[in-house]
Design brief:
By secondary structure, this protein is of the alpha/beta class. It contains 12 helices and 10 strands. Bound molecules: ligand PBG.
Length: 324
């Protein structure tokens, strides 16, 4: 076996999995104030950005060959409410940002998050009933309005990350009715109730609102793999174009099963906590950042993911382009 490992040329010829900037999606946190930028404590190297900085980030992504960005809004407390009305405001932060980016960078793919958690006063992804339970069908109605608002603003891909039942069918039907025939649905089909979302919730400011609340009544139990297959089967039947597994590294077996079982575009979300772990260890000199990031993301591709949402995207694309 070692003959093929003994020289660089042989290793290159026998390498089975390759990372490429075109496999990456960069998630960004968007601020209202165009001139603002803020560091994110638990995500070293990541910033919340207003439009000015965001447009520079878009330019960098285009130059590096990253095909798409995923937008996550940071909504001020005054715009959060029980019914999350700001989520489908045509003049809201997401539609405005989509329009502004599309004007300057029409070729850059824009993926918007369909979920109510940035907009609810309680930080849940859906609307509550009197007992505090996250209702399904009322939430789906709100998600449909949100998805239509994003599509009308020019989002290429709407990505429901809320884990309500039946939302993909409802969104697909509404998109068709409204003439958005080519809007892609990237469904967060297998989204687990994960502790690895902590830094993200700090970044978008939903952690405090959520308080002691949890998302166990809609996000999946980390113990379940068969159920992930059922979720994906349902979302595909309802009209999802692409499906996502989230988080990525603790769920590589799920990524593998989904890709093998369904052979559809399968994405993985290398989430904030996965990013924070490597960054924190690298900052302390405990790990070599570049090698562990490359290794981790290669493993996600090897498991079967076609594309990866990752906060390492810009750094990784730079390393990959430099080594060409
Ligand atoms: C919520 C949402 C979350 C993430 C993306 N969309 C957090 C949650 O479900 O509480 C997490 C992403 C990350 O951790 O990087 N709709």
């Amino acid at each position: 076996m070692r003959r093929s490992r003994a020289s660089g040329f042989a290793r290159a010829l026998t390498r089975e999995t390759r990372l490429h900037p075109s496999d990456l999606i960069f998630p960004v946190f968007v601020l209202e104030r165009p001139s603002a930028t803020e560091a994110i404590d638990a995500m070293p190297g990541m910033q919340r950005q207003g439009l000015n900085a965001l447009l520079r980030t878009c330019e960098r992504a285009c130059t590096l060959g990253i095909p798409a960005l995923a937008l996550f809004p940071v909504i001020g407390p005054e715009q959060k409410s029980e019914q999350a009305e700001a989520a489908w405001d045509e003049q809201g932060l997401v539609p405005q940002t989509v329009r502004a980016i599309k004007q300057r960078f029409p070729e850059l793919g824009l993926i918007t998050d369909v979920a109510l958690d940035p907009y609810t006063a309680h930080g849940q992804d859906g609307l509550l009933d009197r007992d505090g339970y996250v209702t399904n069908d009322r939430t789906v109605e709100a998600l449909v309005k949100q998805a239509l608002c994003h599509a009308a603003a020019g989002a290429d891909v709407v990505a429901p990350s809320d884990m309500m039942d039946g939302r993909v069918a409802a969104i697909r039907q509404a998109l068709e009715q409204d003439g958005h025939h080519n809007t892609i649905i990237l469904s967060y089909a297998a989204k687990f109730a994960s502790g690895f979302y902590g830094p993200f919730r700090d970044a978008v400011g939903s952690a405090a609102n959520l308080g002691a609340g949890d998302k166990y009544s809609y996000q999946m139990d980390p113990a379940n793999g068969d159920e992930a297959e059922r979720e994906v089967a349902l979302d595909l039947a309802e009209g999802a174009d692409w499906v996502m597994v989230k988080p990525a590294l603790p769920y590589l077996d799920v990524v593998r099963r989904i890709k093998q079982q369904f052979a559809v575009p399968t994405f993985a979300y290398n989430v904030s906590g996965e990013y924070a772990m490597l960054k924190a260890a690298a900052e302390r000199g405990w790990l070599d950042e570049r090698s562990v990031v490359m290794e981790s993301l290669t493993s996600i591709r090897r498991a079967g993911a076609d594309a990866i949402l990752t906060y390492h995207a810009l750094d990784l694309a730079e390393w990959l382009n430099a080594s060409e």
